[in-house]
Amino acid sequence: MLAEQRQEAILELVLRNGAVRVSDLVQNLEVSDMTIRRDLGVLADAGLVQKVHGGATRVADSPSYEPRFTAKAALQQGEKHAIAAAAASLVEPGSAIAMSAGTTTHALANELVDVPGITVVTNSIHIADILYTNGRTDQTVLLTGGIRTPSDALVGPVAINALAELHVDLVFIGVHGMSPDTGFTTPNLREAETNRALIGSGRRLVVVTDHSKWGVVGISTIARLNQADILITDEGLDPDAREALESTVGELIIVRATPESRIVG
User: Fold this and answer.
1) Residue 120: CB partners within 8 Å, gap ≥ 6?
2) Complete domains list, the chain, with CATH
3) What's the whole-model pTM score?
4) Distance from the CA of 169 to the CA of which of 56, 141, 250, 261 falls in 20 to 30 A?
């Protein structure tokens, strides 16, 4: 197992259980105590876990806790790239789309740089930068103004007012969490409000999110599950979650996190 894969496995255990012990990780991952401590150091330096005596804990347990963009970008990279590739296949040349801030939509932006004639509306500094720097000259990028959040989204009245007059074909949003009771959620109240404005600007809603977001609840609901025309996620999704989503969202697309980014269901 590569170091990156091992660290991702450790992080998933921390997020799921709230804490991990070095001794348990040594046994489960079959590596040395020194290797585990080095992995925990890497994760702690990235702001993803908090090191404690004998192990590590979650950085925060609050529904209002919002990791920074760089911390979230380190998670489920293979899944995000596969999800982004599937989402990009929905974008027709010459169409108008909107994209929320987030690391999965950031991956999607990288997939769109060669799509001709598209107009992209976004409240993400990172997404706008990708398309400004690497996109085609016949693409149009509209970046909303607003107040910058820890995840580098532009939110608030300025962004909402800008979106009120716009109309796009597809809206792509990434989410902090999703569950049957709370729907799609975020830990940032202003970001939720702005994302609702994004959704209101489009004819169809596409949610792009990896399996780890199932059961996670942020402080504010962006949309109910049945508002998603399409949800794209990966095959790590729990079978019960898959059943719940198949009966709720318009269409569920499951992808496999491989270099080929192949759709499997």
Assistant:
1) 96, 97, 98, 99, 109, 112, 127, 131, 139, 140, 141, 142
2) 3-59 (1.10.10.10), 70-255 (3.40.50.1360)
3) 0.73
4) 261
